[in-house]
Amino acid sequence: MEYTTLGRTGLNVSRAGFGALPIQRTTLSTGVKILQSAFDAGINFFDTARAYTDSEQKLGLAFKGKRQHVIIATKVHGKTKDQVLKLLEESLVQLKTDYVDILQLHNPEKLPDPADENSGYAGLIAAKKQGMTNFIGITAHRLSNAKLAIESNLYDVIQYPLSALSSEKEIELIELAGKKNIGFIAMKPLCGGLLTDIDLAFSFLWQFEDVIPIWGIQRMRELKQILKLVGNPPPFDKKMKRKILQERKTLGKNFCRGCGYCLPCPVEIPIPMAARMKFLLRRSPYRKLLEPQWQERMMKIEECKKCYACSRRCPYKLNTPQLLEEMLADYINFAKIKGIVIKRRKK
Fold first, then answer.
1. Domain containing 8: what range?
2. pLDDT per position as a tens digit, 233-290
3. Alpha carbon distance 307, 298 (integer Å)
4. N or C terminus: which one in the chain shows less Cβ crowding within 10 Å?
5. Pair 135, 102: CB distance under 8 Å
6. Residue 174's domain is classified under what CATH number?
């Protein structure tokens, strides 16, 4: 395992981080086993959140008695000082510790006012003063928010979606954070599942020595795959660059990253999946996506009220209703090619 310093925190973290969102989908025993295996293999940086159901509980059980050897970052959705502290207290109970190494505000719509004594930022500062966290950070899905957070110099770390599909402006955040000595954590290194070439995804991020990607892991084979790449990183060469250009050409500019901030939908359209369906059908096993239960979910798109609440919440400013209509048309055509006829609800 290779290690690097996470910006001004001075923390010596593994260059391959463990994203603990998917671990909530495992059984308790399986999750603990995977986490312990990652630790035994040299991964020492684990990122979770209060919102990830039992993810924190699994980390707490996995690292009981090893706390001083593990670097834990968690996130809270609190908008006020009191909310941040209350949620952190809950996290600490689940994590079986009295502090976290990094406490992050979980993708606030707007950056909190540092002058407001009751703001979420005030909660971070209070948590640090009380010894409940050593360092503070913020996560963002909007480029504008990430840039403002870095330029404010108020946070020790920034967490932002970064992958081989990121734009040049997004990649420029790395240099901007470096100038401020702010640690950079890269979420969604596989772009929400759209990148299926793990070698390409890994190679792209490995070129940035000061960026810590958090790989979402929920299966032992996924952990082994990441560890294999750490041991023998594929070079980021001309071949990889050509692959990236092809991926970007295929996806276009306006594609859904699957972050889920568009939800909830008033008619319960599963937007993060439905808005990427065209690519999921062609990049993953498609049969389950054509089963009756998924047909029913996709047909909910015809119930869309065009309220555009999803578009207003989208960090990437997508015209979500229009995108969903395009995905439904493709879904029906794809099913037809596979010999499956899907009935339209509308006349």
1. 3-245
2. 999 999 999 999 988 888 777 788 887 788 889 999 999 899 989 888 887 788 889 9
3. 18
4. C
5. yes
6. 3.20.20.100
Take residue 164 and report the two structure tokens written for it. Answer: 């081989």
346 confidence band (pLDDT: 50, 70, 90): low
DSSP H helices in 41-166 = 55-62, 81-95, 120-129, 143-152
Is the domain of 222 the same as that of 172?
yes
Question: How far is Cα 269 from Cα 314, in angstroms, rounded to an integer?
Answer: 15
Contacts (Cβ under 8 Å, ≥6 apart) of 86:
78
Q: What are phi and psi of 34, to 5 degrees?
A: -65, -45
**Structure tokens given for 336:** 């037809």
Q: Are residues 90 and 145 in the same domain?
A: yes
Give the number of domains in the chain.
Answer: 2
Which of these three, 245, 280, 307, is where a domain ends?
Answer: 245
Other CB atoms within a 10 A radius of the CB of residue 197 amount to 16
Q: Per the structure block, which two tokens stand in for 318?
A: 């997508």
Bridge partners of 105? Answer: 76, 138
